């Protein structure tokens, strides 16, 4: 099970702030594509992924038990 | 009790607390930056803002900025507090305090910190305008995510 955290516009599009996904061994880019297909998120091409609170690369693998955060372009400050 | 240098809070930020965190007998200067909520942006009127954070990661990334600063400007001490939740016009959203033996480093490091916050810290601002609302992203207009990952640190920038 992968715990997915959603923020900003993605949270509003999903109507919830987290998802549980029953997949594993996917690459970050494959995972994003799967979410886009399944949940129809917009602007995912600009969204970064963090695995267990660390920014991840597109070819990093996501394993069962990981917490995956979708990080839209940030706007703090 | 050790005070935390990097915090995300949901209550008003006190400047004095941040100054105390970076005070040092070796410091000859302390700079502070106070980021506040602006009413007018390019002719559009903001009514209020709402900030959201991925809190544990945001604290980690603030600490990363602190480490970057200490390697670029040795002997500095950095403290950053960012507020989240509902903020009205003129409310303080972020305070950065930097102490250093000499003033130049304190000024430079402080500016570096706010630029990095806008690049790598998972905090989002929702603008509530008079006529609608929108999550702001990519304020710097440089989407730095071509390889799926922001630019964390590159010695070439030193």
UniProtKB/TrEMBL annotation, chain A:
Family annotation (CDD domains): Ubl_MoaD
The protein's annotated pathway: Cofactor biosynthesis; molybdopterin biosynthesis
Annotated Gene Ontology cellular component terms: molybdopterin adenylyltransferase complex
Keyword match Nucleotide-binding: yes
Signal peptide per UniProt: none
Keyword DNA repair set for record: no
Key words of the record: Molybdenum cofactor biosynthesis, Nucleotide-binding
GO biological process, one term: Mo-molybdopterin cofactor biosynthetic process
InterPro entries: Beta-grasp_dom_sf, MOCS2A, Mopterin_synth/thiamin_S_b, ThiS/MoaD-like
Pfam families assigned to the protein according to its UniProt record, in alphabetical order: ThiS (PF02597)
Membrane-traversing stretches: none
GO molecular function, one term: nucleotide binding
Role this protein plays: Involved in sulfur transfer in the conversion of molybdopterin precursor Z to molybdopterin.
Family designation: Belongs to the MoaD family.
NCBIfam families per the UniProt record, alphabetical: moaD (TIGR01682)
PANTHER family: MOLYBDOPTERIN SYNTHASE SULFUR CARRIER SUBUNIT
Record text on subunit structure and interactions: Heterotetramer of 2 MoaD subunits and 2 MoaE subunits. Forms a stable heterotetrameric complex of 2 MoaD and 2 MoeB during adenylation of MoaD by MoeB. During catalysis MoaD shuttles between the two heterotetrameric complexes.
The protein's name in its UniProt record: Molybdopterin synthase sulfur carrier subunit
Organism listed in the record: Aquibacillus halophilus
Lineage, highest ranks first: Bacteria, Bacillati, Bacillota, Bacilli, Bacillales
Automatic annotation (TrEMBL), chain B:
Any one Gene Ontology BP term: Mo-molybdopterin cofactor biosynthetic process
InterPro entries associated with the record: MoaE_sf, Mopterin_biosynth_MoaE
Swiss-Prot/TrEMBL keywords: Molybdenum cofactor biosynthesis, Transferase
SUPFAM superfamilies in the cross-refs: Molybdopterin synthase subunit MoaE
Coiled-coil ranges (or none): none
UniProt xrefs under Pfam families: MoaE
Documented EC number(s): 2.8.1.12
Primary role: Converts molybdopterin precursor Z into molybdopterin. This requires the incorporation of two sulfur atoms into precursor Z to generate a dithiolene group. The sulfur is provided by MoaD.
Quaternary data: Heterotetramer of 2 MoaD subunits and 2 MoaE subunits. Also stable as homodimer. The enzyme changes between these two forms during catalysis.
Name of the molecule in the record: Molybdopterin synthase catalytic subunit
Source organism per UniProt: Aquibacillus halophilus
Lineage: Bacteria, Bacillati, Bacillota, Bacilli, Bacillales
């Amino acid at each position: 099970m992968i715990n997915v955290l959603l923020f900003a516009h993605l949270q509003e599009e999903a109507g919830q702030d987290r998802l549980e996904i029953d997949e594993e061994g996917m690459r970050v880019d494959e995972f994003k594509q799967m979410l886009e297909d399944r949940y129809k998120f917009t602007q995912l091409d600009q969204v970064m992924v963090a695995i267990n609170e660390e920014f991840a690369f597109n070819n990093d693998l996501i394993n069962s038990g990981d917490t995956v955060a979708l990080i839209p372009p940030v706007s703090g400050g | 009790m050790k005070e935390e240098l990097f915090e995300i809070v949901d209550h008003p930020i006190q400047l004095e607390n941040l100054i105390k965190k970076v005070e040092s007998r070796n410091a000859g200067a302390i700079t502070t930056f106070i980021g506040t909520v602006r009413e007018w942006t390019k002719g559009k009127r903001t009514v209020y803002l709402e900030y959201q954070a991925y809190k544990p990661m945001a604290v980690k990334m603030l600490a990363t900025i602190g480490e970057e600063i200490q390697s670029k400007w040795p002997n500095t001490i950095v403290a950053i507090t960012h507020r989240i939740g509902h903020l009205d016009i003129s409310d303080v959203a972020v305070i950065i305090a930097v102490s250093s033996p000499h003033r130049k480093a304190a000024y430079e490091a402080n500016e570096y910190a706010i630029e990095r916050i806008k690049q790598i810290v998972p905090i989002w601002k929702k603008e509530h305008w008079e006529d609608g609302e929108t999550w702001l992203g990519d304020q710097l207009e440089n989407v730095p995510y071509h390889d799926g990952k922001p630019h964390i640190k590159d010695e070439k920038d030193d």
